[in-house]
């Protein structure tokens, strides 16, 4: 069954907990979403609070995918640029699909829903995101229409002796 996507859902305690749980599960499964396993809910919660503050200030929007049981199964944050010369594109952050749902096309569905949401925002003509090298993520995003537009070798230190490229991807919406 496909996920049901909602842009700007009501921020309830259940939603907050669902996003923290998702972020924890994705991180501990090796997902490249800002942490290295093992990570706890308590370590992730402050990062979610930063996203929620950006939403409250109108700088970000939340896209959530719920599974048929109503559980948070996928997320992405659409974050606006504040620079006056870059307001025509936005960043996509914290793109996640729960490990139990991976391999079903839900990642592609999430990216398509994010692109649809961005197209509905006044003046937005492109989406940028960054991904961690060494995991094949650039191939996944490429298969979803994104193009690699930049790479900084070794910019992400996962562990001592394990530096990864920081890869910038772009999706044109026009």
What is the global morphology?
globular
Major pleated sheet: 7 strands, mixed
Q: Numbering strands along the chain, what is their spatial order in the largest sheet?
A: 1-2-3-4-5-7-6
Order of helices and strands: EHHEEEHEHEE
Estimated share of beta-strand residues: 25-35%
Distance between the termini: 30 Å
Rounded mean pLDDT is 97
Helical content (DSSP H or I, runs of 4+): 25-40%
Number of helices: 4
Spans of at least 5 consecutive residues with low confidence: none
The computed structural class is: alpha+beta
Rg, alpha carbons: 15 Å
Number of separate strands: 7
Structure description:
The structure is a single chain. The mean pLDDT is 97. The protein is of the alpha+beta class and 174 residues long. 30% of the residues lie in helices and 34% in strands. The protein has a seven-stranded mixed sheet with strand order 1-2-3-4-5-7-6, with helices on both faces. It has four helices and seven strands; from the N terminus they run E-H-H-E-E-E-H-E-H-E-E. Helix 1 (13-28) packs across helix 2 (41-56). 30% of the residues are buried. The radius of gyration is 15 Å and the shape is globular.
List the SSEs and their pairings.
Blueprint: E1 4-7, H1 13-28, H2 41-56, E2 60-66, E3 72-80, E4 89-97, H3 106-119, E5 126-132, H4 137-143, E6 147-159, E7 162-172
Parallel strand pairs: 4-5
Antiparallel strand pairs: 1-2, 2-3, 3-4, 5-7, 6-7
């Amino acid at each position: 069954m496909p996920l049901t996507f909602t842009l700007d859902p009501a921020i309830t305690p259940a939603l907050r907990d669902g996003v923290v749980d998702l972020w924890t599960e994705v991180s501990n499964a090796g997902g490249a979403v800002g942490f290295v396993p093992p990570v706890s809910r308590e370590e992730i919660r402050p990062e979610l609070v930063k996203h929620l503050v950006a939403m409250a200030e109108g700088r970000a929007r939340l896209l959530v995918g719920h599974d048929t049981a109503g559980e948070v199964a996928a997320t992405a944050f659409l974050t606006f640029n504040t620079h006056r010369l870059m307001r025509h594109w936005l960043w996509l952050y914290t793109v996640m699909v729960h490990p139990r749902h991976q391999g079903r096309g839900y990642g592609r569905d999430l990216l398509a829903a994010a692109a649809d949401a961005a197209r509905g925002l006044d003046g937005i003509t492109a989406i940028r995101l960054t991904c961690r090298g060494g995991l094949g993520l650039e191939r996944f995003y490429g298969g979803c229409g994104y193009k690699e537009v930049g790479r900084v070798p070794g910019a992400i230190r996962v562990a001592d002796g394990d530096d990864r490229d920081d890869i910038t991807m772009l999706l044109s919406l026009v």
